[in-house]
Amino acid sequence: MVEKKKVDVNEAPVKAKNVGKTKEERKKSAMPQRIIAIVFWLLAFACEIAAILVLNKTLYVGDATKQMYWLIGLLVADLILVIIGSQFWKKGNDIDPASEKDKTRYFLQNQMGLIVSVICFFPIILLLLNNKDLDKKTKKIVTAVACVALLVAGLFSWDWNPISEEQYEKTVSDYQATEIFWTRFGHSYHTSKDCPALKNTKPENLFHGSITEALEAGRNDPCDFCVDQS
Which of 30, 111, 156, 160 would staple 96 via disulfide (CB 3.0–4.6 Å)? Predict the structure, then answer.
């Protein structure tokens, strides 16, 4: 993982080195993130399987109240694991983005978290809706929890601003010799620490480094004030 450097307000700007990576280097760097994501997603899927077993009483956990608590607990665990996995997957995409040349692969790679969210919640929602054995209260509560979990997982897993391989390479080419600045909570990269958008940023929340470091930190949106977008 790239180490981010905090900005010393008294430090003179230093030009960044040419740190562009080849496609193979990016793929290798992204591999640990993607493996971790898959592990979390497999654990999430295991929670869904366990919830289905509890639902049809193949795995007996007790009376209706205990069954409801178990179902809710497994769905919450499912949700947490899906979201964590999706964040690691998106981090991998920041390091090694997909090419826009293949539209299908571009969509699948960027929105894999959303697809996993559907896989990990939609089947059990269908089973809950069609289940005739659950009492009405349990069915209503657990179904509502599952639907909300699917919505939340989808929102957190969707990549709202993915960068393509072509955009990545052009951006690195344009700014490979420029010192880049970004903030702890923002989505943009900046070419000047005196940018108006950074005026109210505390020093401890301001980082600097190469454009590659900024992109790998998920800061792929050029600042409207200091980045030339002509």
Answer: 30
Predicted local distance difference test score (pLDDT) of residue 4: 54
In 56-187, alpha helices (H): 64-95, 103-110, 112-130, 136-157, 165-175
**Residue in the structure block whose two tokens are 């049809």:** 56
- Burial (0-12, 13-18, 19+ Cβ within 10 Å), 190: buried
The pTM (predicted TM-score) of the whole model is 0.85
Amino acid at 123: P
Token pair for residue 230?
């002509």
CA distance 36 to 20: 25
- Whole-number Cα distances in Å, 159 to 31, 40, 88, 90, 119: 18, 18, 12, 7, 17
% of the chain residues with pLDDT over 90:
87
How far apart CA 108 and CA 25 sit, in angstroms, is: 22
Distance CA(180)–CA(167), nearest Å, equals: 17
Is 201 within 8 Å of 80 (Cβ atoms)?
no
Contact 206, 5 (CB under 8 A): no
